[in-house]
Every structure is written in structure tokens, then in C-alpha cells.
Amino acid sequence: MEPSTLLTDSAVPADAAAARPTPPELVCPAGSLPALKAAVDNGASCVYLGLRDATNARNFAGLNFDEAAIGTGIRYAHERGCKVFMALNTYPQASNPGPWRAALDKAVDLGVDAVILADPGLMQYAVSRYPQLRLHLSVQGSATNYDAINFYREQFGVVRAVLPRVLSLAQVEQVIDKTPVEIEVFGFGSLCVMVEGRCALSSYVTGQAPNTHGVCSPPKAVRWQETPKGLESRLNGVLIDRYAEGESAGYPTLCKGRFDVEQEESYYAIEEPTSLNTLELLPRLLKIGVRAIKIEGRQRSPAYVAQVTRVWREAIDHCITNPHRYAPKPAWMTSLDKVAEGQQHTLGAYHRPWK
User: 314 by DSSP, 3-state: which?
Assistant: First the structure.
């Protein structure tokens, strides 16, 4: 064979190179400085984080960043070519919007690459004070169609929208086709089955809503108790689930509890406690133009972040290089199932063929 006919990575035909999809950003959770470093070191394109207050939707004790830690984290990420997004994705209260505005001011001072917002009023504040700041529409904004997303673009200059986990793949494609706004979708992690940004179930049981207090099923309301009938999980005294010996026990949220239905049987009537895992959908996600894939889990450990980020980095790189020969490796799926909720996974709403 003549040397000129050999193909190497640096000599791929132009048409073949052009056929490769654009790599999506891998957006990974950082609930602490060690988690941020784990994400960066294992291949995250971007990390997202929040402050230690109710301005973000993961306001758990022991999580999130004070000013010193966030400054260190931003430097660590930027020195390694990784972007940092700050989540300010809860809703300011009419009586006291000051903490949210102060948090946005702090984000700008610290030099984050974008802020993730849900509230239009806070977006207006951002636009009026910091017109060059990059704005992302949070999943808590609950924009499930292109008209809503285009509205946020026209009114506030939003450049990216995170889609709620209630759309089928066909619906995601329709949104992408009808908006110039970058679309980010969840690829892995705990699956929210509610209309995100509008869920009232947590506040119904505990009096604290994720939209305002930044936490779903606050830890202070969670109780575990061994009983003769099995291990029970309760939320503010309400029985959420009961587990047999050896059965995986998920964190108690009302939407993922077992219900007595028509007094005939007890089962997960709304949604099972399981994790979303879209590895098998990667070629389709890239083909329809998804610009970013988000990993859920700011409340998870640095080890979780490292493991999930590593798998997804390898999978995305493999899919970009070999889009027509891509298939999830069994080792990837096994690795992710080990850290999945209930140690099982689902495609969630993505797999609904009738949509």
C-alpha cells in the first residue's frame, strides 16, 4: 500500500471530519471544593455550584461554597480550562429579594462564566446591571417549549436553557429546531418527575418548598426507623416507604414513595426511585444538536462526581470519534449503576415513542 493512501488521525478526509458531531459540553456538579476538583480532574467541561444559602436549589447543610472556597474553586477550574457556572435558581421572595441580588453581584465579582437563573425579576436585574453576563435559564424555570425559551432570549438575552426532564427525545429535537438558544439536557442522575420549578409536594409535607427554600425533602424532616415490618423512611412524620431486608432504600421524597392505590396494592404510583441514564442516547443527542449534557448530583460525594464524570467523558469522546460505531460499554453501565439511585437506571421521558 502506498504511504499516501494510509489514513491517520491527522489525515482524516475533510468530509469525514465534517460529519463528526460538535462535542457537547459536559456540565458536572460541584457541591464542595473536593467535588469541584474531582469533576475538573476527570474531564468536566464546566462545573456548576451554589452558595451556602437559599439562593440555590441544593441548600443542604454541609454543601455548597463560602466566598473563600468558591474563589479557590474558580481559580482551580480556570487554570485547567474548565468553566464555572453559579446556580441562583430559586425564586426571590417579595419581602426580601436582597440576598438573591447580592449573590448575583458576588458571582460577577468572583468571575464566574455564567449564572443559572429561574426568576425573570432576577434576570432583569442581571441585564440592567451586568449586560455582558452570560445567562442560562435553569430547569427550575420550567420552560418546556420553544416559545417560552425564545421569550427568555428576547426579553433577557438568555443564551442557554436547561430542559426539564419531562420531554421526549422527539420533543427535545423540536425545541432545538425552533430556537437559537443553546439547549442543555440532563444525562445522568436523580430523575425529577414533577414539572420542575412548580413542584409543591415537598412543601405540602414539610412546609418548605425547593422553589423558595432551596431544598426538596429537607434533612431535618427525614427520619429512618427499624420496625417489625421493615426499615421505614418518614418525611415530617409521614410514612414515605418501607423496605424489606436487603432492599435498596432511596432518599425519602414524596413523589418517589410507595402509595396504597385503590386499597388494592402498594407501589410506586408516580415514579420509582431510580436514576436517569442516557448513555445509549448519546449519538441521537449529538445528532439533534444538544449543546450540553448535565450530570445531576451536587448533593453527592466527590467519589460519585469523579466516577460519573470519568465515564461520561470517555463516552462522549468515544461517540465523537466513532459516532456510527458507538455503543455503551458494559463497564460504563455497571460503573454508573453502582452510584445510581436504587442501583438501577431508566431513560425517563426520553423513551416515550408516541411523543
Answer: helix
pTM equals 0.84
Q: What residues pair up with 189 in beta bridges, in sequence order?
A: 276
Backbone φ, ψ for residue 56 (5° rounding)? -130, 155
CATH class belonging to 15-191+274-351: alpha beta
Residue 347 has phi, psi (to 5 degrees) of -90, -5
Integer Cα distance of 97 and 94 in angstroms: 6
Asked whether the beta carbons of 301 and 339 are under 8 A apart, the reply is: no
**Alpha-carbon distances of 320 from 13, 37, 173, 259, 282, rounded to whole Å:** 15, 25, 19, 43, 9
Hey, is 224 helix, strand or coil?
Answer: strand
Q: Which residue, among 199, 204, 236, has the nearest Cα to 218 in the 3D structure? A: 236
Stated length of the chain = 355
- Those residues whose C-beta lies under 8 Å from the C-beta of residue 308, and which sit 6 or more positions away, are 28, 188, 189, 295, 297, 336, 339
Domain boundaries defined on the chain = 15-191+274-351, 206-267
Mean pLDDT by 10 residues, the chain (355 residues): 37 51 92 97 98 87 89 98 96 92 97 97 98 96 95 98 92 97 95 68 78 75 89 90 81 81 76 85 95 94 97 97 92 92 78 56
